[in-house]
Amino acid sequence: MPPSRQKRPTQPWQEVAKAAQEHRDGTIAQLSPLIARAPTNLPPRVIGIPEQLSDERALSITSLLPEELIASLATSRLSAVEVMCAFLQQAVIAQDLTNCITELLPRRALQRATELDEYMQEHKRPIGPLHGLPMSVKEHVGFEGLRCTTGYVSHWDVIPKEDAHILQVLHEAGAVFHCRTTVPQTMMHLETDSNLYGVTTNPYNRNLTSGGSSGGEGALIALRGSCLGVGSDVGGSIRSPAANCGIYGLKPTAFRIPTDGWGYMMAGADTVESVLGPLSTSLEGLKMFMKTVIDAEPWLSEPALIPMPWRAYSVPQDRPLRIGVLWHDEIVRPHPPIARALRILTQHLEANGVEVVEFAPYLHDEAWAILASLYYTDGGEADSEDIAKSGEPWRPLSKWIIKENSCVKKLSVGELAYWNEEREAYRKEYALHWNKYNIDALLCPVGPSVAPKHNTAKYWNYTSQWNLLDYPGVVFPVCKADKAIDAQWQGNSKPLSGKDEENRKLWDPEEFHGVPVGLQLVGRRFEDEKILGILEHIKQKVKLPFLDS
């Protein structure tokens, strides 16, 4: 059931924002005992600060990967309450460092953890495959009785009447929800900033963005305030934060993971399928999430979902694995650290018997024209009205994607039919193009830059391309930007386009030094298991990530 819509706020938007931040601070104050808080005078790089603030026991727990936590919880080496206390503490520190949460849920989380410990004591077995695992949730995924703003001040009084379907499934599996994370105004940024909560920053450099729109998840998980979280993706919103923050993220194929009960849907958004998916500190965390949810057969209560079980995948034994490499899209050439990451990884793949194939892009500029025309089939009216209701100002990237986007127009029935036909024609053409290469998966950039400076993330094509095609994509860390190695551009210095020229101007080897570099592995529709299996095989062969490379 969608959240109930309320009347427009009667107080100034600044007062609503103040109330939102006071509510968040109030939920943090519920944590007992109170913990050491981060200093207000922070350096740009805060990724190592939690080690200075958390106690040794909490750090030993939050440093564990999801699969390690599950193993310890399932054998009672750790209690759910002990684990939850550690992650609540770390989430507060992450909030102080990056402004990544909208609400801490200590009472709810500790009550659930206590119930799980009692269940384990009585039954001598876990309640489900995620027993006691702390999970964070992007704010627009609805919780019964909790506000669901989706980044708009005017939505402050929107309160769902039941938990989103995905939360119901994860709860039954034993997950414990301990916090909700920040989202941007309009939900359509590769940045996370709103007038309600301000800007979420990157823990590797606070002058850079954590990504968006699941940027709160990205920053929180990078700082180990969570090990597995729920995000969403319609243009890169899971993959952008994962790459920017050096973690793992999966955009699944549409209609595999439940979407009933989230708090936001663009008018006509079925023209570009938006999906929920996981972000995690490990690849295994992504697999656990997907298998757990799909094994629950959510299509039995959400009929739009495809009734497709989770399938085991093994890499070919009778031939080499065949991986395509998209070096650039012929529109914007990625910055030097990304090009270097591609070179390093392809060299290691070839050294380990993987067949690497040069994959040419196919009309990626046309893909963006189709997408940008279908994102806002109402011409942005609904979003504009939601912003106008409260009188809040437009954030820079909201203005860019809606007001400054020449493709955003209110479409007539005939125009909508035309663009839908263009979408289907492009999907068919791309399938035929893919067939020419006969590849198992495609390796490509996640974006034209590592984590960008604030309000500059305006090139979506390296992620949105796969949303248009509804191809699954998994993002993983490869290395880190290094000013000594990446200072100079490789190869042809002539810009590919005006957008390429703009992107080159954003390159700053000093500012980007030391931030994560992620890449993306893409498969065809419903090959979610396949790309995760191939990435697992690659990681075993080449020992990713190359953090010192």
UniProtKB/TrEMBL annotation:
<feature type="binding site">
    <location>
        <begin position="234"/>
        <end position="237"/>
    </location>
    <ligand>
        <name>substrate</name>
    </ligand>
</feature>
<dbReference type="GO" id="GO:0004040">
    <property type="term" value="F:amidase activity"/>
</dbReference>
<protein>
    <recommendedName>
        <fullName>amidase</fullName>
        <ecNumber>3.5.1.4</ecNumber>
    </recommendedName>
</protein>
<feature type="active site" description="Acyl-ester intermediate">
    <location>
        <position position="237"/>
    </location>
</feature>
<dbReference type="InterPro" id="IPR036928">
    <property type="entry name" value="AS_sf"/>
</dbReference>
<feature type="active site" description="Charge relay system">
    <location>
        <position position="213"/>
    </location>
</feature>
<feature type="binding site">
    <location>
        <position position="187"/>
    </location>
    <ligand>
        <name>substrate</name>
    </ligand>
</feature>
<comment type="similarity">
    <text>Belongs to the amidase family.</text>
</comment>
<dbReference type="Pfam" id="PF01425">
    <property type="entry name" value="Amidase"/>
</dbReference>
<dbReference type="InterPro" id="IPR020556">
    <property type="entry name" value="Amidase_CS"/>
</dbReference>
<feature type="domain" description="Amidase">
    <location>
        <begin position="82"/>
        <end position="532"/>
    </location>
</feature>
<feature type="binding site">
    <location>
        <position position="213"/>
    </location>
    <ligand>
        <name>substrate</name>
    </ligand>
</feature>
<dbReference type="InterPro" id="IPR023631">
    <property type="entry name" value="Amidase_dom"/>
</dbReference>
<feature type="active site" description="Charge relay system">
    <location>
        <position position="138"/>
    </location>
</feature>
<keyword id="KW-0378">Hydrolase</keyword>
